[in-house]
Write a structure and sequence with these properties.
alpha/beta; about 270 residues; 8-stranded mixed beta sheet
Length: about 270
């Protein structure tokens, strides 16, 4: 037994000697999971921070980033997280969900036939993506990486719609969320009805939502009407365990909400502040 302990100590010592504190070890890797849920191979983009390699005993919080099929979005969010982790937030593992069909994967089943005039089939596969993440992606991460149970989510536009729906269906999965110009207008404002029900029924679940939108842009003006409705309702029905904070940014383009919304949201998330 003593020999085994000494051997393990020696191996750990050798490993620690291999780490150069002046070297940058962070890496992004592409992973393909054989998904039984989708019956095909599914792609993930995974970012491991420098500290993951320099602190081999430490576990890290994960942040799920939707729409990571767009490499520029993934890189922008990664850059913000890396820069902020120098002084303001904890280093995080980023799990980039690569989406193949946004309308199918991000939207819940429609209740109104007229919805199909705006969103052509196939749509309504949001529960399939939730199943994939909960029962395939998350177990894979737990088995292969040092992750904490604390999880955060980031979604833009329909990605934000999906992230809100995910929280409604699985209230304990995500601890904190950044929703950038989420679409609450979908299917005759289905998500407003579901969010109200979720808000009332989950009074003991501790969660954070940081929501940002812009103006002038046609998408922003359309989505804001529904977003204002749910925001005003929540302000009148406050839940001490669910933090809901909304801000309308001085940004006149739907695609540019990323620029300001990401770093503002990251700085507000209580669980990752240093």
């Amino acid at each position: 037994m003593r020999i085994l302990i000494l051997l393990l100590f020696f191996i750990n010592f050798l490993f620690s000697q291999e780490i150069d504190e002046n070297k940058y070890y962070a890496e992004t890797k592409t992973v393909y999971l054989n998904s039984l849920v989708f019956n095909k191979s599914r792609e993930l983009q995974i970012f491991l921070p420098d500290e993951y390699f320099k602190q081999p005993e430490k576990k890290f919080k994960t942040i799920y980033l939707f729409d990571s099929q767009n490499q520029r979005i993934f890189n922008y969010v990664k850059g913000n997280i890396e820069l902020l982790s120098m002084n303001h937030i904890e280093p995080l593992i980023i799990v980039g969900i690569v989406t193949e069909d946004r309308w199918f994967e991000f939207l819940p089943v429609n209740n109104n036939p007229e919805t199909l005039k705006e969103y052509e089939p196939p749509i309504g596969g949001a529960d399939t993506l939730i199943n994939h993440i909960k029962n395939e992606v998350e177990p894979y991460l737990k088995e292969n990486y040092r992750i904490e149970n604390s999880k955060l989510g980031i979604g833009h536009s329909l990605g934000g719609t999906f992230l809100m729906y995910f929280n409604i269906k699985e209230p304990t999965f995500f601890e904190s969320n950044i929703l950038l110009s989420p679409n609450f207008t979908y299917d005759n404002e289905q998500l407003i009805k579901l969010t109200k029900k979720f808000y009332i029924e989950n009074s003991k679940v501790s969660k954070e939502f940081f929501i940002y939108s812009g103006y002038k842009d046609s998408y922003e003006e359309k989505f804001n009407k529904s977003l204002f409705k749910i925001n005003n309702w929540i302000r009148k029905n406050e839940n001490e365990n669910i933090k809901w904070e909304y801000e309308k940014l001085k940004i006149d383009n739907h695609g540019k909400i990323w620029f300001e919304g990401i770093y503002k949201g990251l700085l507000k998330i209580k669980s990752i502040k240093t």
